[in-house]
Write a structure and sequence with these properties.
Blueprint: H1 6-28, H2 33-44, H3 51-59, H4 61-69, H5 72-82, H6 91-113, H7 115-133, H8 138-162, H9 167-179, H10 183-191, H11 197-206, H12 217-229, H13 233-245, H14 251-263, H15 267-276, H16 282-291, H17 295-304, H18 310-326, H19 330-344, H20 347-362, H21 369-389, H22 395-407, H23 411-417, H24 428-431, H25 434-446, H26 450-456, H27 463-477, H28 484-497, H29 501-513, H30 522-527, H31 529-542, H32 549-555, H33 560-572, H34 576-590, H35 593-606, H36 609-623, H37 630-643, H38 647-660, H39 665-677, H40 681-688, H41 700-713, H42 719-727, H43 734-747, H44 757-773, H45 796-807, H46 810-817, H47 827-830, H48 834-839, E1 846-847, H49 854-863, E2 868-871, H50 873-881, H51 887-891, E3 896-900, H52 901-916, E4 920-925, E5 930-935, H53 940-956, E6 959-961, H54 981-989, E7 992-994, H55 998-1006, E8 1011-1012, H56 1014-1023, H57 1029-1041, E9 1044-1045, H58 1051-1060, H59 1067-1071, H60 1081-1094, H61 1099-1116, H62 1120-1135, H63 1145-1158, H64 1166-1193, H65 1199-1211
Parallel strand pairs: 1-9, 2-3, 2-7, 3-6, 7-8
Antiparallel strand pairs: 4-5
Pfam families: PIN-TPR-GreABC
Protein name: PIN domain-containing protein
């Protein structure tokens, strides 16, 4: 094909490349055909570029993408990339050659896709040359098109038939068809069959068909190669002889190939045949030398052969590897075999590489036995897939792959290779093969599946294999000490039946391990000296006189077998730790990941979790990428981290485990559980439903997780139906069924789940069924409504029982209400989370501030600038309250902030609970002794739900650490511990604790943990200049509005809070009831008078403000007389205000008397104050006027106060 410009290629080749070329190129360009054809065409144009180089270039995804675009720009970019591999003396020449090479590659890519596309491209390029260069005539274009079309149409059936042949045979058939078209008939007859092609070829060899006599010698040779592909060596030899007798050239080469065929039948016969020939050819000469064991000579002869055909190059490299191995140069042999397999990708070269690698791995010739075993398996599986593609003998490499997997310690993978698809990887015709039956039984026995091995043994015909497998079953199915003599006898039987060196080595090791007397191993020593030396060592140690423990310890690091024997001795004595250490020592000695894996499992049995982590991690590092034991190690790490409560590490291990196999349900569930425990619930749902439908739960815990996640995140319209179907897995489990039904009735979140009328009826039906089966369920039960005048009467026993239960914890509740105990202490009695207790203000107020410790707390904030801080939900609740005014400044005020997984889940639980809480609740009225309906203020529930969502959102952005159990406060482990996990972690790791429950801070300081509250943080930030005075006031006022106590009085803060509350008697008023607000009594009273002036038109607020200040004055004044005097002063000050009038007196008096009622011994100031007032009026205006005024002032008061006024008038003295 002549080169054309990129413009032409883009215009005419682009559409074809986009439509067909690269759509199919991924399949075809990976083979040899396109790259070899392109390489051949390039050579004809003076460019020496190997087929391998071209194949590698095309197979790069970026290059393939550029070709598939087919634009002028993309092809120019492709040409630039080709310039790196194109030959040339300088950049200009390489660029020109790259353009030529690009046109060749595009032509061959499309030609390999379909004849039609090849014709289209050929025609289009010819036309383009006319238009662009004027070098062709339309007649020549038509001639070229017709020629191509005729050829490719005729080739359609032939090409399709050859696709199921070995690649070499396919290429040879294509070449032979030009000289002998009848080969199409031969190919069709062969490829119409699958697994009996060899039988057909053998029949043709002995009973030649009619077409055979007219076939050229090359066809006879091709038939010989084809017969060899299907292991019909006698037939292959017959075809080769026929080809030679018919004059095939070169004769010596074909005689060597014929000798190779005989080698598959009889080595002596092959030797005799080769040595009797008189022809000369480097391959034949090398073969003759090899038969005489003159390895160096053979290699020299072979080096003289420089074949051009790729098939012959592969033969040369394969033979070279075998010669090197025979000469004892095993490393070179392996390198040559691997290179050959990589270059030519043939089944034979991959099998040879696998055999040599496995031999080196198992004969003690390398320290990298794992890598060799894994590589051997990879090469063997490449051969399996290759032979399957042309219906060759795939069992041979499959058995080799299984042996390699076992050598690598990948027992599970080896077993999978023995099983039928889709659970396993074996095809049915392979399973029917006696070789795979033997290997499957052996693999089952090695994996400890003794019952399975015994069953499979029934289909094993080979006597040695039967005895070998039976010996393994005898060793593993009972204590060896019980049947040691039988085991030894079984291995001796295996030795007597062994037919090969490999079988004899296996039997000898079995005899040695069982403590039997070894047979003569002199001949085997010549074959595998290192292996035999190890067998003799094992035998000598295990047969040493007396107790073998000392001998095992002395020699353990000389043999992996002895390491295991030593560990078994320790385990038998009940010392699993010593057993694990023995195995670990061996693993360290040989850098063996499989031994390290065994040590990890043994440490797990001993309960040494730290050692499990160390050894499992080391095993993973030693095994590296692709190690089959990685799955077991990650699974072990997941379990250990779960058991140890380190769910963050469990998540990491579970992710790694799942990355090995995305369809591993155990790994997926492990990751889901770990994420769920960490509170990463949405991510847990994504993992659970990664493949579409969430994976099915297998036990109660998984079902609960599945249900929670699905009820919150599923968008499946059939979710309710699937949930009801899942309930059938627990038909008699009252608790599980109750949880399902509770969720279906009350637990579906969001609008994503569409509930149809049919769904509602299904839910109602299963609910009725549950209530009928379990009428006394604690989770769900039916209560019929009472009569209209008392509809709650039937609920009274349940409500009263709940009330009486709560009273059992009154001795805890009272100190909590007084701010003396942490509110978390109510978590266990109430069943609520710490976050929900904080949201519901169970202590009525937030006891967050202790002025006596504020200096220490500010100091703790200073320390937090360089240290990590643990925060609990009470402080996060505060941050949520301040979300609109300065939360970023507060979070940024500490160096590093973190919380625990348990506290985050505590917040999630609160969000869940407050989200479903009704604004109407039913409680017990102790005075009326009956149920009572309580109704929240409108919007209170929505506000609480919003706050809970803010808390979760803030905590989601924090670093989190797992804390499944208390380590530093073991005496509190019986508690509902989530609320204590933050403090416990701070104690262990010497961190600083941030909480807005001052009782928790008391506990922290008692345990030596520096702690602070948000108020102290505000003080620190103000002192440090990080926030302004105004910001400090705004944030403090926000806390005061939300009843954070004990705030010191500040006119700015209290007034800002009152203004924000429209001067209603809320947070600021409540703060005035506390002594801490009265350190500046005159200022506090002035603030109250100002507040009352703003609400003087609202009698209720007047009462509330007056009551707050009255109670505060009493609490702040220990002496009763002084307290009483303070109330008198307050009342006089209020009466002297311009806004005060008789209409407010009843409300002011009510507020004043709230203070009187606060403490016994405090006198009511009303009579004293108004007696003084009356006397003053009398002195100025006389009794008549004074009495009229006093009666007028009390005209709107209660009767008892009117009576008080009358008594003042009647008892007054002049």
């Amino acid at each position: 094909m002549d080169p054309v410009t990129v413009t032409v290629l883009a215009r005419v080749g682009g559409p074809l490349l986009s439509r067909a070329g690269l759509a199919g190129s991924k399949r075809y360009t990976r083979g040899f055909r396109t790259s070899r054809a392109a390489s051949s065409s390039a050579r004809t144009q003076g460019m020496a570029v190997s087929a391998k180089t071209i194949r590698q270039w095309i197979n790069r995804r970026d290059n393939a993408h550029l070709l598939s675009l087919g634009t002028e720009k993309s092809l120019l970019d492709a040409a630039d990339r080709l310039a790196y591999i194109a030959p040339g003396n300088d950049a200009t020449e390489r660029k020109e050659n790259a353009l030529k090479l690009l046109s060749i590659i595009i032509y061959e890519v499309i030609r390999a896709s379909s004849p039609g596309d090849a014709i289209a491209l050929s025609t289009a390029l010819q036309q383009a040359r006319i238009g662009d260069e004027g070098e062709r005539t339309r007649a020549s274009i038509e001639s070229a098109r017709s020629s191509l079309e005729s050829r490719f149409n005729a080739n359609d059936d032939f090409d399709n038939s050859t696709r199921t042949l070995n690649n070499w045979r396919r290429e040879e058939a294509v070449t032979l068809r030009d000289a002998w078209p009848s080969i199409a008939t031969v190919v069709r007859e062969v490829t119409q069959r699958k697994f009996d092609r060899g039988e057909l070829l053998a029949q043709w060899a002995s009973h030649q068909p009619a077409w055979y006599a007219g076939a050229p010698a090359a066809v006879h040779g091709w038939l010989g190669r084809l017969a060899a592909d299907y292991d019909e060596h006698e037939a292959a030899f017959s075809f080769y002889e026929s080809a030679i007798s018919n004059g095939i050239y070169p004769r010596g080469y074909w005689q060597a190939i014929a000798s190779f065929a005989l080698g598959g039948l009889d080595e002596q016969r092959a030797k005799d045949y080769a040595l009797q020939t008189s022809e000369n050819h480097p391959l034949l000469d090398a073969l003759k030398a090899a038969h005489q064991e003159e390895w160096a000579t053979a290699l020299n002869y072979l080096d003289r052969w420089q074949p051009e055909k790729l098939a012959n190059q592969a033969i040369k490299r394969t033979f070279e590897a075998r010669l090197l191995h025979a000469a004892g140069q095993n490393t070179r042999a392996i390198n040559v075999a691997i290179a050959c397999a990589k270059e030519y990708e043939t089944a034979g070269s991959n099998i040879l590489a696998a055999e040599l690698l496995l031999m080196r791995a198992t004969q003690g010739e390398t320290e990298h036995n794992l890598a060799d075993s894994q590589s051997a398996r990879s090469h063997a599986m490449l051969a399996v897939h290759a032979r399957r593609s042309w219906f060759g003998d795939s069992v041979e490499p499959l058995v080799l792959a299984i042996k390699s997997a076992l050598a690598a310690g990948a027992g599970t993978q080896a077993w999978s290779l023995c099983q039928a698809t889709p659970q396993g990887e074996a095809w049915q015709h392979e399973l029917d093969d006696q070789r795979l039956k033997e290997q499957a039984a052996l693999t089952a026995a090695v994996n400890g599946l003794y019952a399975t091995a015994q069953t499979l043994l029934e289909d094993v015909d080979n006597e040695f294999s039967r005895v070998h497998i039976e010996a393994l079953i005898m060793e593993g199915s009972s204590s060896r000490s019980e049947n040691i003599a039988e085991v030894q006898a079984q291995w001796r039987s295996a030795w007597s039946l062994a037919q090969s060196d490999g079988q004899r080595i296996t039997a000898a090791m079995g005899i040695a391990e069982s403590g039997g007397e070894l047979p003569d191993l002199t001949e085997l020593m010549k074959v595998a000296p290192k292996v035999i030396e190890e067998i003799q060592l094992v035998s000598r140690v295990l047969r040493s006189p007396g107790d073998t423990l000392a001998a095992l310890k002395a020699n353990a690091l000389k043999s992996r077998v002895l390491v295991i024997k030593l560990a078994e001795r320790h385990s038998a004595g009940g010392d699993d730790v010593a057993a694990a250490k023995a195995i670990k020592a061996g693993a360290d000695h040989w850098n063996d990941p499989n031994l390290m894996s065994m040590a990890a499992h043994k440490f797990a049995e001993a309960g040494n979790t730290d050692d499990v982590r160390e050894t499992a991690t080391t095993a993973l590092n030693l095994g590296g990428k692709g190690w089959d034991g990685a799955k077991h190690m990650y699974a072990l790490l997941v379990q250990v981290e779960f058991d140890d409560g380190k769910t963050d590490k469990a998540v990491e291990a579970a992710r790694s485990l799942l990355s090995l196999d995305s369809h591993d349900k155990n790994a997926r569930w492990a990751l889901v559980k770990a994420l769920f425990l960490r509170g990463q619930v949405f991510e847990a749902w994504k993992i659970l439903s990664y493949h579409g439908d969430p994976i099915t739960p297998r036990d109660r815990d998984e079902a609960k997780t599945w249900l929670w996640l699905g009820s919150h995140y599923s968008e499946d319209p059939d979710f309710i139906g699937k949930t009801i179907a899942l309930m059938r897995d627990w038909p008699n489990d009252e608790e599980m069924l109750g949880i399902f039904i509770q969720t279906l009735n009350f637990g579906l979140r969001g609008d994503q789940i569409s509930i149809s009328a049919e769904d509602r009826e299904m839910v109602a039906s299963v609910t009725r069924g549950y209530l009928e089966r379990f009428p006394d369920s604690d989770l769900l039960r039916t209560v019929e409504p009472g009569p209209d005048d008392d509809p709650l009467v039937n609920m009274a026993p349940l409500i009263r029982a709940g009330y009486e239960h709560s009273q059992q914890f009154a001795d805890i509740q009272r100190p909590v209400m007084e701010g003396k105990f942490p509110i978390g202490m109510l978590a266990a009695p109430t069943g609520k989370s710490l976050t929900e207790l904080s949201l519901r203000r169970v202590a009525r107020h937030v006891y967050a501030i202790d002025l006596s410790t504020i200096a220490d707390e500010v100091g703790a904030v200073g320390t937090a600038q360089d240290n990590s801080v643990i925060i609990d939900p009470t402080a996060v609740h505060t941050l949520a309250l301040l979300a609109g005014v300065g939360v970023e400044q507060l979070i940024g005020g500490v160096s590093s902030l973190l919380t625990t997984d348990q506290l985050f889940r505590d917040a999630l639980q609160a969000q869940e609970s407050v989200g479903i809480s009704a604004e109407v609740t039913i409680g017990w009225d102790e005075e009326a002794e009956k149920p009572k309906v309580y109704v929240e203020a409108p919007g209170e529930g929505a506000l609480r739900a919003g706050r809970s969502a803010q808390i979760v959102q803030i905590m989601e952005s924090m670093a989190r650490v797992p804390r499944r159990e208390l380590k530093c406060m073991p005496e509190l482990r019986h508690q509902n511990i989530a609320w204590l996990t933050g403090l416990d972690y701070a104690i262990e790791h010497e961190m600083i604790y941030w909480s807005d429950d001052r009782a928790m801070r008391y506990l922290a300081r008692d345990r030596g943990v520096p702690s602070f509250g948000t108020y102290a943080l505000l003080e620190y930030l103000k002192q440090a200049g990080s926030i302004t005075h105004e910001e400090h006031v705004i944030m403090s006022a926000e806390l005061l509005r939300n009843e954070y106590f004990d705030f010191p009085f500040s006119s700015h803060v209290f007034e800002a809070a009152a203004v924000a509350d429209s001067w209603q008697a809320r947070g600021a008023a409540q703060a005035l009831t506390l002594p801490s607000s009265w350190s500046q009594a005159p200022n506090a009273v002035a603030f109250v008078i100002k507040a009352l002036s703003h609400v003087s038109q609202n009698p209720v607020e007047v009462t509330n403000w007056t009551a707050a200040v009255s109670v505060g004055l009493i609490r702040a004044t220990p002496e009763d007389s002084t307290a009483s005097n303070n109330l008198e002063i307050l009342l006089r000050q209020l009466m002297g205000q311009s806004w005060f009038g008789r209409e407010l007196l009843p409300h002011v008096l009510t507020g004043i008397r709230a203070g009187v009622a606060e403490r016994e011994g405090v006198a009511d100031p009303v009579e004293s104050v108004f007696t003084g007032l009356y006397q003053s009026l009398v002195r100025r205006n006389g009794h008549q006027h004074a009495s009229a005024v006093l009666i007028g002032i009390f005209s709107l008061t209660a009767d008892q106060d009117k009576a008080l006024a009358a008594r003042i008038i009647l008892t007054a003295r002049d």
